[in-house]
From TrEMBL:
GO molecular function, one term: protein serine/threonine kinase activity
Cofactor: Mg(2+)
EC number: 2.7.11.1
SMART domains recorded: S_TKc
Domain Protein kinase as annotated: residue spans: 112-374
Residues given in the record as ATP binding sites: 145
Disordered: annotated span: 28-68
InterPro entries for the chain: Kinase-like_dom_sf (IPR011009), Prot_kinase_dom (IPR000719), Protein_kinase_ATP_BS (IPR017441), Ser/Thr_kinase_AS (IPR008271)
Protein name: non-specific serine/threonine protein kinase
Keyword annotations from UniProtKB, A to Z: Apoptosis, ATP-binding, Kinase, Nucleotide-binding, Phosphoprotein, Serine/threonine-protein kinase, Transferase
Catalytic reaction equation(s): L-seryl-[protein] + ATP = O-phospho-L-seryl-[protein] + ADP + H(+); L-threonyl-[protein] + ATP = O-phospho-L-threonyl-[protein] + ADP + H(+)
One Pfam family matching this protein: Pkinase
SUPFAM superfamilies assigned to the protein according to its UniProt record, in alphabetical order: Protein kinase-like (PK-like)
């Protein structure tokens, strides 16, 4: 189970004001949790970190009742690859994704007899199974695959492959193992080592008392498993009591198994890795503050686990998630005398050196393994056994809080109920996002409406002013139009009158033209007559000896011409001709 903020690029102090947190399924699928109960297990959608009621409950370690799938099964054993020819290939690089060949495309029911359900989560269900060929018992973890990138239901193939890739590199006595992997259309099925001893803290809560020697044996096993991971540059990032299981609790010193590698990452030199995930109660300050992460984050979680193991109380758990995160960033904890009255100084020193905000000053895994509290020899233990009554750690408080946390979860914790819960959570998340979007849209719409109203008022006033001007101009245009229409009619009438006048003038012109043509013919005849007359007088003119005859003759000619013109009734022509004749005569 992991916890995410809506925006990983903001500091956790800013995000403390947000009421919602996101948690992950076993393979890292984000899950929004309700505000009741305690943090769910890594494979189930548990509620959030609200503390139990009662005295001292504010600092109590919390956990739900139902067993998680990862709590009932192991993680994956490194699988060797059979090469053609019978050889075994080397393990994959931690950064390589497993190809389709690693996921057997056949029915798991053909190889294993599927038995009773052991546990369930939001997108996973765990069932007991038995291999048909050998009779060996395992745990089959069915992980729902996400069917599309847009879907929020199921675990993405990339996350499943990342987890499996890491698990294939791991082989250690304190880490559970993978036996086989199958895939069908809807699920990836991990066949895992069956871990039947339950959680470490449940086992310890059933004991009347716990000595520090016993506590160090369990812490040493945890450190051994983490040391193996850190030697491979793998950070678990989700170390918490729910992920610390016992292989078999019916032995004096049960064997511890670390489980759930859904958040595990390979830490690469020179590459900054940042994320906000994990269980709030156990995350390191660098996760809360969204700073580069490394192997040191696991050491902080070990410090919190040790604190809870020795006292039954959680060092940073507050009344709310926000208070819990604030306590972590401020490293706000103490060794309350009520809880640590019988705890040795070495144990407190071990915890103090793990719960250091500066990762450079925090104990490394090798330094933790070398701490005197872990390496305490038998002779020193003998001396402490003299004060056994004083050094026994009471587990009553741990048992009380364990019972409270178990009772905070509903008894019906089946896969179907969690599937329904997941749907409700998704619906609530979508509704919240819708409300947020709707509120932002409402504010934006209100601003737009105010702006539009202001523009409308301005335009309305402008249109009123312009309307008066337009109406006045329109009235003038109508008047001018009517005036032009009147002028057009008058002009049309004038054109018709001019046309009629032109027709009359054309008639008169034609008449005059014909009249002048007749005059021209008459004049031509008269001129011809005159020419004939002049020819008849040429002989007489030669016989004349003085000019009196010429003047008398010219006078007679003029009179004849005048008579001719008078007969044509053309006074203008007569006058012009008279002038020409006079000038000619002169």
């Amino acid at each position: 189970m992991s916890w995410r903020l809506p925006s990983p690029h903001t500091s956790m102090q800013t995000a403390l004001l947000r009421p919602r947190r996101l948690f992950r399924s076993p393979c890292g699928q984000p899950l929004t949790l309700s505000s009741r109960g305690c943090p769910g297990r890594s494979a189930e959608p548990g509620p959030s970190l609200n503390p139990p009621s009662g005295p001292g409950a504010g600092r109590a370690w919390r956990r739900p009742a139902a067993p998680s799938p990862s709590a009932l099964l192991g993680q994956v054993r490194p699988c060797a690859i059979q090469e053609p020819g019978g050889g075994v290939a080397s393990s994959l690089s931690i950064n390589e994704r497993p190809s389709m060949a690693f996921f057997k495309q056949q029915k798991v029911e053909d190889i294993y007899e599927i038995g009773e359900e052991l546990g369930s989560g939001q997108f996973a269900i765990v069932k007991k199974c038995q291999e048909k060929s050998t009779g060996m018992e395992y745990a089959a973890k069915f992980i729902k695959k996400r069917q599309s990138r847009a879907s929020r239901r199921g675990v993405s193939r990339e996350e499943i492959e990342r987890e499996v890739t890491i698990l294939q590199q791991i082989l250690h006595p304190n880490i559970v193992k993978l036996h086989d992997i199958y895939e069908n259309k809807t699920d990836v099925v991990l066949i895992l080592e069956l871990v039947s001893g339950g959680e470490l803290f449940d086992f310890l809560a059933q004991k009347e008392s716990l000595s520090e020697e016993e506590a160090t044996r369990f812490i040493k096993q945890i450190l051994d498993g983490v040391n193996y991971l850190h030697s491979k540059k793998i950070a678990h990032f989700d170390l918490k009591p729910e992920n610390i299981m016992l292989l078999d609790k019916n032995i004096p010193i049960p064997h511890i198994k670390l489980i759930d590698f859904g958040l595990a990452h390979k830490i690469e030199d020179g590459v900054d890795f940042k994320n906000i995930f994990g269980t709030p109660e156990f995350v390191a300050p660098e996760i809360v503050n969204y700073e580069p992460l490394g192997l040191a984050a696991d050491m902080w979680s070990i410090g919190v686990i040790t604190y809870i193991l020795l006292s039954g109380a959680s060092p940073f758990l507050g009344e709310t998630k926000q208070e819990t995160l604030a306590n972590i960033t401020a490293v706000n904890y103490d060794f309350d005398e009520e809880f640590f009255s019988n705890t040795s100084d070495l144990a407190k020193d071990f915890i103090q050196k793990l719960l250091v905000k500066d990762t450079r000053k925090r104990l490394t895994i090798q330094e933790a393994l070398s701490h005197p509290w872990i390496t305490l020899k038998d002779e020193a233990k003998v001396q402490e056994n003299k004060k056994v009554e004083n050094t026994q750690l009471k587990t009553k408080r741990l048992r009380e809080y364990t019972i409270k946390c178990h009772s905070s979860m509903p008894p019906n914790n089946t896969y179907i109920n969690f599937e329904r819960f997941a749907h409700v959570v998704e619906d609530i998340s979508r509704v919240e996002q819708g409300f947020s979007t709707l509120a932002a849209s409402h504010n934006s719409l209100q601003e737009d409406m105010d702006a539009l109203l202001s523009i409308y008022n301005e335009k309305e006033a402008w249109y009123k002013e312009e309307g008066e001007s337009v109406r006045h101009k329109l009235s003038q245009l109508k008047y001018e139009y009517r005036k032009m229409e009147s002028l057009k009619r008058h002009l049309h009438n004038d054109i018709e009158a001019v046309g009629a006048s032109l027709a009359g003038v054309c008639g008169k012109y034609t008449e005059l033209q014909s009249h002048y043509e007749s005059l021209r013919r008459e004049l031509s005849e008269e001129l011809k007559w005159i020419q004939d007359l002049m020819s008849s007088f040429q002989l007489g003119n030669e016989a004349c000896v003085n000019g009196n005859f010429d003047s008398v003759f010219s006078k007679d000619i003029n009179e004849s011409v005048m008579e001719l013109l008078n007969r044509s009734c053309c006074e203008e022509f007569l006058e012009g001709l008279n002038l020409d004749v006079t000038e000619s005569h002169q």
